[in-house]
Amino acid sequence: MTQLTxxxxxxxxxxxxxxxxxxxxxxxxxxxxxxxxxxxxxTIDYTDVVAAEARGSHCDLxxxxxxxxxxxxxxxxxxxxxxxxxxxxxxGVAIYSPHTALDAADGGTNDALADTLSLTSRxxxxxxxxxxxxxxxxxxxxxxxxxxxSDALFDAxxxxxxxxxxxxxxxxxxxxxxxxxxNSESNPAVGEAGKFERVEExxxxxxxxxxxxxxxxxxxxxxxxxxxxxxxLQVLAAPTVPAGxxxxxxxPSEITLEMVANLLKRSLGVDHLLVAGNKDSMIKTVAxxxxxxxxxxxxxxxxxxxxxxxxELRHHSVLELQRAGVNVLCTLHTNSERLVLQHLARxxxxxxxxxxxxxxSDDRDPxxxx
Length: 370
Prior knowledge:
single chain, elongated, alpha/beta, 370 residues
């Protein structure tokens, strides 16, 4: 038996949840992290047949690539819309979804699709955007008040650095000379009103999360001896994340569109593909996006790809790609994603050898071609 927390930790190492798209609903959706689990079923979709397969295989954890809960529910009952979630909770089955975090992660969904064609020199079609999350607060404090002010800022949550906060009460301090001149209505803590003053001060710098900014500024004002507190609140640029959605890379050698299609069908275990383009077109640069690829059409065109492989596209997106000279292969939505389950199961098994990971045999795309 393994604690669910251990499995969650490994899942987040493989596909960090902060790589997920802002609209997505990823992570542990159902379950108790402190519970013990013994067997996991991996699937693309958590459907009735997959739920029955999980019960029959005695799985107490389901890793469902697509989140079965996307939006908030006001009630969970045994009726049609929430039956699967209700039953999972009742039966003690935990459900975890990596979705777009696994898409963006190195070795994830899009790399698994790119691997079918041994694409080299690959990179994301669109890098994951990161927004600034931290400020640097800079203020100027008389030496006798430096510890009082810094302690107040630390207590307000400033001065913590490191990805998991391994270091706290961090600051930088440098001495200098500050100048000011108050008018007749001022009441300076140092010097006299109406007189130009030069005073020794310490420049104090601390890092803080944007969510703590208001609390930290209030703590600064309460602890600082000056009537008017001078400070700068600087937005820090977010570090570049070397991950993103989609992939573009090079085939080992230039081959025809028909040859690419045959390779892809064998790798994915499908009999048919939707094709837009001439089967004799020569292909070297290939872009891929597992699932629905419409969002990346402009990125594909900008990449100068000869071919775009994805699960599904809208009619007008296909026309836009054709006008730009890009061939298209569509696999149906989940056929482009399902290959990642075997990859993920192997990686999880390698990290947690005592735990059993089973890839669903009943999960399949709801659409087929007659």
